[in-house]
Structures are given as C-alpha cells and as structure tokens.
Amino acid sequence: MNRHTILKAANALLLAGVLSVTWFAGRAFHRMHVDDPIYPTPGLTEKILLSRYHSALRSGPADTEIYLFSGKEKGGRLLVLGGTHPNEPAGFLAAVLMVENLQVEKGDVWIIPRANRSGFTHNDPQEASPQRFVLTTAKGDRSFRFGSRLTNPVHQWPDPILHINPAGQVLSGSDSRNLNRAYPGKKEGVLTERTAFAIMELIRTEGIDLALDLHEAAPEYPVINAMVFHENSAELAAVALMDLQLQNMDFRLEESPPSLRGLSHREWGDHSEAASILLESANVSHGRLKGKTSASLIVEGRDKNYVRAAARGLLFVPFDEAGIPLKERVARHLAAVRSLTAGLGDMHPDREIILHRFPSPELVREKGAEACLAPPNQR
Ligand SMILES: [Zn+2]
Fold first, then answer.
1. What integer pLDDT is reported at residue 31 of this predicted model?
2. What's the 88 CA to ligand 1 centre distance in angstroms?
3. Residue 378: is its pLDDT beyond 60?
4. Residue 335 is part of a domain; what is its CATH number?
5. Which of these, 55, 134, 217, 234, has the minimum number of CB atoms within 10 Å of its CB?
6. Is 23 a domain residue?
7. How far is the CA of 378 from the centre of ligand 1 (A)?
8. Taking residues 290-307, what's their average pLDDT?
C-alpha cells in the first residue's frame, strides 16, 4: 500500500467519524425540540392548544398544550401553570402529576405544564446544565427535559440591549425572553409577549377564579419557600397557609410589590378577576454556590457548599446534608395547590372545586414523584 492510498483511507475514516459525530449530535439536538410525552387520565375533558386564545401562536414553538378537566357540576375555575421557567422542574412536574392523576367532580381545572414551551428546547448557556433528568417508575423510566429560564433565542432573536416590558418596566435585554416579566402580554409583541397575552386571554375569557404559577428559586434568594400573593388574594393565601402549617409545611407569605411589573402575581390580578398567586420552592441547582450541575443535583438536591452556606447563615431556608430533593419540592407545590383550592371553596361556596384522585403530596414526599407518574407508553 503506497503513501497516497494510506492517506486516502485515513481521510475516508476521518470523514466517516465526523459524519457519525454530526449525525448523533444532530439527533440529540433535534430531540430537544420534541415534547416529552404526558399521559393524561381518562378524566381529561379536552386537550387544547394555547393558540386557541391567540391565533398568532398557531403551530409555532410557543403553542403549548393545555389540559382541561371539567366536573359534572359547575363550580370554581382554577388555572395551574408549570414550566414558566423550564429550568424549575418542581413546578413542571407538579403540573404533570395533576394531569396524570386528576379527576374533577365539580368545577373546571386548566393545567399548562409547559407554559414557556420554547424554553424547554434549550439550556441556559455557561451553566453546564444536564439536558435531562430521569425518574424511574415501577414500569420503566420517565425522562424529562431540563430547559432554560428563557425562551429559546432560535425562536426569538435578537435581544435588545434594554427591554421595556408590556407593563412599562425597563429590564435587561435577555428578560425580553422571560415569560414571567412579559405579562399582561402584547398581542403583536415578540414571541414571549404573545405567549403572555394568550395566557392572559385564557384567564379573562374562561373567567378563571384562581390562577397559580409554580416556580423554584435558589436557597440564597430571599423570596423562597414562598407564596407570593396579589392583594386580591391576601385572605386566601393566609387561609391556605394555616392549612399548610397543619400539614407541617411552612411557607413565607409575600405580598406582590405593586412596583414590580410584568410578573404573573402582579399583572394577572391587575388585569383580571383571578386571585393570583406564585409559589416558590428551593432548588440548589439554581444557586450561585452549587457544585457540579448534574441530574442528581436536580433530583436529590444535595450539595455540600449549601450545607456550609447554611452554617454561615447565608440561606433563607434550612439546609443540611439531606438536601432539598425534588420530591419535597413537588410535594410542597401539590400541597399548596390543594390547600388554595380548598380555601377558595371555603371562602366562596359558589367557587368550590372538588378534586378526586389529586396526586398525594404525602405520597410524593415519601416515595417521590415517580410513585404518582404514569408508566411510560402505557396509555
Ligand atoms: Zn421561576
């Protein structure tokens, strides 16, 4: 074999290697744009797309699924959002667990697990975040995307240097892709503003009584383990808090500051009749003190840096070697949704909502979200 033939063979091998790496990378990239399956219960009344409330979103990256469960009897009207920030998996998973377990006897419940659907298709740059995390049910693994706080720049680009949101507040340019700064939305705005407008339209046209937005934040962030309430829902938040404390779940009550504009707990309440509340759980994978960002950090929530930070009094939640696992964070969200819904009915009997087969926060807290997730590909 002469030198020329050897070089040709080496080139062919190199080319084959490059092509196979490109193929695998391309396939992995493409999969980031495919929604993970959610398996609704037979109690589901209708699966709707968000574009029903704003046709400009039709078939685009923000056209997310809404799961509607209607009871036989008329009652209150509840909206639950997960995935406003797709790197906050406890809110997303609590919404998925509701879709996969719920049966509604009285009233109507709308659930949006991926409020910012575009944000599930990428990660935050420079965070070395994992693409996915896996939960193992009795009948197989369920794998979920770990997304970004913001809309994918592939879908909304470029960012301005400064952004004036629809409520008139000046923010950094990247916040133009933050759904929770975009309310009450803009009909002809950028994609994130259009998404916010569609959610606002849903709240108004369906006459939502109680709207809940499920989030997570870093343990060193002051608004943590919190229930942030619009002043239209102060009494409801207080009633729910007492109920939660009886279940050994303490929450910090925070009134939505009137000067902080564009957020769900402010604009939903200002622009509709809905009692508007945002819930935060504590997730170390968000924090600036974390070690390696990994799927186990997201699921187990253990980090020795945070144990040290807690010992120095730098955190706003208790934190020890046991960490704050995903199951605890999801259980807190579920318990809060349950208590707030019950409180709504106690305060306004005409807005009562009776939920059957609500995913048990106690079971999730003990055994993990996997104990209430549907098995993969079973329905
Ligand atoms: Zn958030």
1. 86
2. 6
3. no
4. 3.40.630.10
5. 55
6. no
7. 31
8. 95
Cα of 238 vs centre of ligand 1, distance in Å, is 22
Q: Is residue 278 part of a domain?
A: yes
Q: 191 CA to middle of ligand 1, Å?
A: 18
What's the burial of 72, exposed, middle or buried (CB within 10 Å: 0-12/13-18/19+)? Answer: exposed
**pLDDT (0 to 100) of residue 3:** 87
Per-residue pLDDT at 310 exceeds 80: yes
| Inside any domain, residue 59 | yes
Longest dimension (CA), the chain: 90
Number of domains, the chain: 1
Instruction: Report CA(321)–ligand 1 centroid distance (Å).
Output: 25
What is the residue range of 48's domain? Answer: 32-371
Q: Which two tokens stand for residue 262?
A: 């564009």
Sign of dihedral through CA atoms 240, 242, 247, 249? positive
Ligand 1 centroid to Cα of residue 116, in Å, is 11
Contact 248/311 with Cβ under 8 angstroms? no
80 pLDDT more than 90:
yes
Q: Which has the closest alpha carbon to 328: 247, 258, 263, 270?
A: 247
CA of 217 to the centre of ligand 1 (A): 6
- Determine, yes or no, domain membership for 91: yes
Does 180 score more than 80 pLDDT? Answer: yes
The interface predicted TM-score (ipTM) is 0.99
DSSP for 83-137, please give it: -SSTT-HHHHHHHHHHHTT-EEEEEEEEEES-TTGGGGGS--TTS---SEEEEEE
Q: 21 alpha carbon to ligand 1 midpoint, in Å?
A: 35
d(CA 225, ligand 1 centre) in Å: 12
Contact 318, 249 (CB under 8 A): no
pLDDT tens track for 265-293: 999 999 999 999 999 999 999 889 999 99
Ligand 1 centroid to Cα of residue 178, in Å, is: 9
